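From the pipeline queue, job 12 of 40. The input is one protein chain; the requested action is below.

Action: predict structure.
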Amino acid sequence: MAFYAVGGYTMAIFATRYEWNFWESLGLAIGFSALAGSSSARRRCGCAATTWRS
């Protein structure tokens, strides 16, 4: 999947609409990309943190 597009869209919105500088919006974009990736992986494998048992 294209998680870079989530980060790029987030960065563009915050840089243009809210007038954040490059570095502030970059940090937020990385966070949103990581969140989208982890939520997609969690749904895809059907696992959650509470289902892992030894």
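Job complete. Residues 22-45 form the longest helix (24 residues).
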